[in-house]
Amino acid sequence: MNDASKYIAYYLAHVHRISKSNINTKLIGIYDSTHEAEKAIELSSKLPGFKDSLDGYEIIPIRLNKIHWKDGFTEFIGENVLPSKEIVCENDKQLVELGLKKVNTVYHFFEHGQERNFEDEVRCIGIFDTIEKAKQANVLLENLSGFKDYKDAFVIIQTELNNTEWFEGFRTIFS
Predict the structure, then answer these.
(1) Which residues are registered as beta bridge partners of 157?
(2) Is 123 exposed, middle or buried (0-12, 13-18, 19+ CB in 10 A)?
(3) Residue 11 falls within a domain, yes or no?
(4) Of residues 93, 102, 123, the one with CA closest to residue 30
(5) pLDDT of 138 strictly over 70
């Protein structure tokens, strides 16, 4: 049996900083190797918006089945929070070696009310190899500080690996 914690998934995001307080983050996809994530950058970097902000790409290594935010949270951040980059060790393995086709990503997502201009607050809790482990992460966190006030904000999204989520570019409109 494989020790799944030795496997690294690659979360590819594009962060477009419109202003200091206006940051737009897009999940491009979750990949099973750095090679696949780099191929996705190569393809999407030709699309409108992406080609004008090539420095916005971030490949974030995330350890499979690791739960982030284990202490809950006490402050609202008013933005999407990318997962913390894992330190990849010599004996870690790329997810491609497991042969998974899909992973289950747990997010905690909610929208603030009018008092905070309806800002989104998104935290990536982790990437899991089974739906059961993703559900266990929800149960573990739902009574912690911050999360307990928004228990219904947990979302599990099953994602096909190496599947780019953005087929079109984007454009920024300033008012």
Answers:
(1) 105
(2) buried
(3) yes
(4) 102
(5) yes
Structurally, how many domains does the chain consist of?
1
What would the pLDDT profile of 113-123 be if each residue is shown by its tens digit?
656 565 667 88
Predicted structure pTM score: 0.85
> Is residue 83 in a domain?
yes
Phi, psi of 133 (to 5 degrees): -70, -35
Domain interval for residue 87: 4-160
Phi, psi of 128 (to 5 degrees): -130, 150
SS3 110: strand
Neighbours of 94 (CB within 10 A): 18
Q: H/E/C letters for each residue in 34-89?
A: HHHHHHHHHHHCCCCCCCCCHHHEEEEEEECCCCCCCCCCCCCCCCEECCCCCCCC
- What tens digit of pLDDT does each residue of 66-122 get? 998 898 887 766 555 666 777 888 888 888 889 999 999 999 987 766 565 656 678
Looking at the domain assignment, is residue 173 inside a domain? no
